[in-house]
Amino acid sequence: MMEEPLTLYKLIILYMLNRVDFPLTNAQVGNFILEKEYTNFLTLQQAVFELTDAGLIATHSVGNRTHITITAEGRNTLSFFENRISDTIKEEIGHYLNENEVRLRDEVSITAEYYKSTAGEYDAHLTAKEKNVKLIDITLSVPTQESAAAICDNWQRKNQEIYQFLVEQLF
Question: What is the pTM (predicted TM-score) of this model?
Answer without folding.
Answer: 0.74
